[in-house]
Design goal:
Distance between the termini: 11 Å
Strand order of the largest sheet: 3-2-1-4-5-6-7
Strand content: 15-25%
Shape: globular
Radius of gyration: 21 Å
Helix content: 40-55%
């Protein structure tokens, strides 16, 4: 069968690549075309990569508005690529701003559409539920709590675990030991605290200054900032100047694997940190009026995927317009070695692993997709 996949950012490229590998096992005759990145190209053939996500990723309302003409042109290009390939199924991987529009177009042109990694409509933009129900033929979800949410909205999703587990397991065997990580980056023997400040400019701007002030209160530990390769180091240097913070780039898993604890902004990183077994504090600075509006705008009681999947506050979330260093210090001291909350949190993370599901999710999802397609033939 012919599969056209659409992914628009690094995480989608990773999960899209693992899904392609699963589809090749479930359907040895599979043929692919995709918009994605280098990982998908390695899995599905570089000649089948029609557009790299580096050309299509626009984050934030300002970037989107500045590039509206480019986005509209890329939408037309994507539609032409899909129509020319005439796939048996269009598989949309996360990236809802672009992919939901493609779902509508595909429905109007009679192309079967699967959505893999559902938009986070349970948190915000719940109006997208109606579009999912109308334009998506099958929804594949990766969080256990979504199994209750979507049926209440008239959508029967399919859940086979979380592909993040596969990505972590793939990397786990190649991670350096804490000693090797220390030697590589010239770190001393003090315990390491990883600082995962986000992957966008605004997140670094809003969260890294607090992290720098927090590090000053722990002279017996060394704090390592995990940078992302698509943001220049000078951005981090601006907020690290005069501090004792250390910086590593594109080594988030390596830093977490070596860390005693972590301070993490909200997002997928909260789940990755927990699945790696690293106690964490979640911090996120936002505008004061957004904090006030949070109970009315946000549809869920927590922002971290750890708490959402466990259904309780297992990790502390500090979401404020003026982040309190005092509170962050108290919470971090509670989860480092000897801290009052550390053992309970590690036990919660064991429960989380069981709830999320074991390795092999990508292959299980791929088999279900092939079964769905064969049933409709």
């Amino acid at each position: 069968m012919n599969y056209f996949l659409l992914a628009g950012e690094p995480s989608g490229d990773l999960h899209g690549a693992n899904l392609i590998e699963g589809l090749k096992k479930a359907d040895p005759e599979a043929r692919f075309r995709f918009w994605g990145g280098d990982r998908m190209a390695a899995a599905g053939g570089r000649e089948n990569l029609r557009k790299h996500y580096r050309e299509t990723s626009f984050f934030g309302i300002v970037q989107v508005l500045r590039n509206l003409r480019t986005i509209k042109r890329q939408m037309r290009q994507c539609q032409a690529d899909v129509a020319a390939f005439a796939p048996d199924v269009l598989i949309l991987v996360d990236y809802p701003g672009f992919n939901m529009k493609m779902a509508r177009w595909a429905k109007e042109h009679g192309i079967r559409t699967f959505y893999y990694i559902a938009p986070k409509v349970w948190a915000w933009r719940e109006w997208r539920v109606k579009a999912i129900r109308k334009y998506v033929d099958r929804l594949f979800i990766i969080f256990p709590f979504e199994r209750d949410y979507f049926p209440r909205k008239g959508i029967e999703p399919l859940f086979e675990g979380n592909p993040l587990v596969d990505a972590l397991e793939e990397r786990r065997s190649t991670l350096p030991t804490p000693e090797e990580f220390r030697r590589k980056h010239g770190l001393d023997e003090r315990p390491i605290v990883a600082l995962v400040a986000g992957s966008r400019r605004a997140e670094i701007r809003d969260n890294l200054p607090l992290m720098a002030r927090l590090a000053e209160r722990f002279p017996d530990r060394q704090f390592v900032v995990t940078g992302v390769p698509w943001l220049e180091k000078s951005l981090y240097d601006r907020y690290m100047a005069g501090s004792s913070l250390r910086y590593v780039c594109n080594e988030t898993y390596e830093a977490l694997h070596a860390a005693e604890a972590a301070v993490v902004t909200s997002g997928t990183a909260t789940l990755e940190t927990a699945l790696l077994g690293v106690p964490e504090v979640v911090v996120y600075r936002t505008l004061w009026f957004q904090v006030k509006l949070q109970p009315y705008v946000l549809k869920v009681p927590w922002v971290s995927l750890v708490n959402l999947n466990l259904g309780r506050e297992a990790v502390t979330e500090i979401i404020q317009s003026d982040l309190s260093v005092d509170r962050a210090e108290r919470e971090l001291r509670a989860i480092v070695a000897g801290g009052a909350k550390r053992d309970r949190m590690l036990a919660d993370f064991e429960e989380l692993r069981a709830v999320i599901g074991g390795p092999g999710a990508s292959e299980r999802f791929a088999r279900r997709m092939v079964e769905e397609l064969n049933d409709k033939q």
